[in-house]
Write a structure and sequence with these properties.
Layout lengths: L6 E5 L2 H10 L4 E6 L2 H11 L3 E5 L9 H11 L4 E6 L4 E2 L16 E6 L7 H15 L4 E5 L7 H4 L28 E3 L4 E4 L13 H14 L2 E5 L7 H9 L2 E6 L3 H16 L7 E8 L7 H8 L5 E4 L2 H10 L10 H13 L3 H4 L6 H4 L4
Parallel strand pairs: 1-2, 1-3, 3-4, 6-10, 6-11, 7-9, 7-10, 11-12, 12-13
Antiparallel strand pairs: 4-5, 8-9
Length: about 375
Amino acid sequence: MMTDSPLVLVGGDVHTERAVSARWPKARIGGTFRDLSLLEYVASGIRPDIVAVDVSLSPRGETLEAWTVRFKSAYPSSTVTVIDGSSNRVSEDIGEVPGLTTVLGSQTVVIWSPKGGVGKTFLSTNLACAASLVTGGNAVLLDMDLCSGDVAVHLDLLDGPAITDLIPVLPDIRPEGLDKYARRHGPSGLNVICGPRQPELCDLVTPEVVRTVLTLASKRWGLTYVDTPPDMASDVVGECVDAATKIVLVTTQDVASLKQCRSALEIFTKLGIPVSAMAVVVNRASKDSLMPLQKVEEFLGVELAGAVPEDRKAAERSVFEGRPLALISKNEISEAVWSILDHLSPGLGRASSNKKTPRRRGLFW
């Protein structure tokens, strides 16, 4: 039965997404995929009300008509609609659907903390790798902690281009040109634009450079994750916050960290950033803390988006090996990361809760 605010998965590109938004302006778009096998994978976890597919999209190993029939048979509660993205023509008339517009096909998620040492980079790399895994590499992580960024260390990407290599070509580069300057994390398929190789080069990355790279990355990849320095007054942080569709504030149960986090929330609120655009995550959460999670929520005045349990040994081994724990099943930290991802981008975490199940993979590969 169609809900008042149906969830739509889009098969196609940005033109298809615009055609869907024009036809059903009140619907929620849960994601846009160029690969129908990936769309089908996500659909198995969230069961969309509508699946809108561009007429020019070619499934692997079968015709679009055959794929449509098979999908309808597998998911009878979902309505499949074929769209001509170039002309906004819809082959099946469903009608207007009232509801709230929430487009998750393109997001810029900024991970930040006013206090250093809380595990911000650890969360950034794990979230970005998880998102890349489920979207087939349609995600990028930007290391904007320019003076002391460790994204490359966390992902074992010590050789390759850096953001400073982009500076001479920025005035003329197109979004797809970023591929040449992004390192590839093999296990997850994540694209990574790393910070300067030497700290003394960080001054070359001006706010204008940061703004341009953020804009290009958002156009090139569906999901953009940004690791930032712990400096509220930084122009770099300001540019990242301005570009963000979601700000993830990372804290621990330490009183000093919580106090700074609450101050940051108050500042963001005064700047006019809505509460819905902010998410607070507690890292290294411990049941034995004098500040249990319930008290943390009371102190901050917000509901937590998630809590990553403390497992120092596993986390240290993860960084040492350059292998994010989000890529490992049956791990409490991994489960927490996927849950946070689902909070930030509804559907992605749930769609991947069984990401290593052979039966599901057999549907497509």
